[in-house]
């Protein structure tokens, strides 16, 4: 509103005439004193300071280079090996060996879909969203000994072999992105529900991650399902195994989350009351349009 | 007793308040003269003049001003006129007005001061007095710089021009700002035409006095061929100026208390300013500065 406020002042002012025009700030004496021009600066430099007294130049300026005017820091070339490291997304590793071990020790139920809260409830992975950690990545260590069909949802898959190892046993893999806000809800779900906040809606992946999560080769959650089916066949032919029939799967294997949904069975915007064992759902049209995917 | 500069400013402000109160009282006490039946307006009132505004503003709706007439002494409104907000509602930058007026004062200024240099003085055949033996200071010539009537070191040489051209953007912004300032201080009046019923200057003087138009008025029309009556009336009155659109400038607008525009002049001004605001010039289109003498 700067224009309207200025015009309000103008209406209360006396009439603007040739006599009462204000001088621009750059032409006032005070401004000229504080911001001397080049010639004034030269006369001052020839009378005062280290240059006129033939003293050493200030710190950081090499007297040999550029007649003592080029800072030393500019003469040395930069080699930014680790440029962009702080902005990169981190994913904590979880190997197939660890996954098989968790299943064998019955810390994870393979009959139900395995997602981030299930893995975090084992208390083995401490994910810190404020350190730019965006979840877990699956590594291919122990690919030969993995032998349980599971419906796994993971944030990143580092190798093609890990995908093949899961699909060889008849499992299903999807890579899924969570933004830091919903990630903080997923890491400790009980603590989140005790806070009494509505379930957040998941944000879309950032620009540099959209390509990964729409790629059927990486089994992205935004990819076309028909293309994913083709890629499963192609990977099976590459590694030489036979895909099991999809009609024999239990209904738990067909469960997928909505792109905006972060918990199985709970829609974004709902509020879980642990004390009264109830769920509060918003009815206002405004909230429904906001949380709608 | 010494009065500080801040207290002077306070007193001036009080004076302006009193002046405005007096003006308000005089406006309430004075009564309009009875309407003369000789000059009735034949058109049906109110006559709303719709104007098509080009380049509509993104944010602000068009402003509105009354359409008045000089044809009768009584202040009767003929209709409403739309004004373009990007000309009549700009940021009131008074420093840009200052720069424009400074430019208008300086660009035609020529310094004719001239002092002859040393070689233009005549050669003296003899010294004023001998070199030795007089007890006075030694001199070769009477035209040295320390002598009265001698030459001046680094004196002013010849006619020097102070010509420069303000950038086009600043000139356009200055015109828009001046129009804005005049409008928001209630000093702009838009009339249908400059036709007067009589050629007597008392008619126009009394009309200006009744409508509180101040001591000096600038009448602007689109052509430089004006009606006979207003030419006669303004020529006999001090402070009234007639001007075509191509002569409109910031200095004259700020100098006169009131600006009276005809509707044809308004159309032309808005068309020209809008074209300037929505087009750009290359460096070639700018007028080149003349060479130094």
TrEMBL record, chain A:
All copies of domain Large ribosomal subunit protein uL15/eL18, residue ranges: 93-171
Keywords assigned by UniProt, alphabetized: Ribonucleoprotein, Ribosomal protein
Domain of life the protein comes from: Eukaryota
Any one Gene Ontology cellular component term annotated for this protein: mitochondrial large ribosomal subunit
SUPFAM superfamilies: Ribosomal proteins L15p and L18e
GO biological process, one term: translation
Keyword Ribonucleoprotein: yes
Record's signal peptide: none
GO-annotated molecular function: structural constituent of ribosome
Similarity comment: family membership: Belongs to the universal ribosomal protein uL15 family.
Protein known as: Large ribosomal subunit protein uL15m
From TrEMBL, chain B:
Keyword set, alphabetical order: Mitochondrion, Ribonucleoprotein, Ribosomal protein
Superkingdom in the source lineage: Eukaryota
GO biological process, one term: translation
Keyword Mitochondrion in record: yes
Main location class: mitochondrion
Any single Pfam family the record assigns to this protein: Ribosomal_L4
GO molecular function: structural constituent of ribosome
Keyword Mitochondrion annotated: yes
Location within or outside the cell: Mitochondrion
One Gene Ontology cellular component annotation held by this UniProt entry: ribonucleoprotein complex
Family recorded in the similarity comment: Belongs to the universal ribosomal protein uL4 family.
Name of the protein in its database record: Large ribosomal subunit protein uL4m
Taxonomic lineage: Eukaryota, Metazoa, Spiralia, Gnathifera, Rotifera
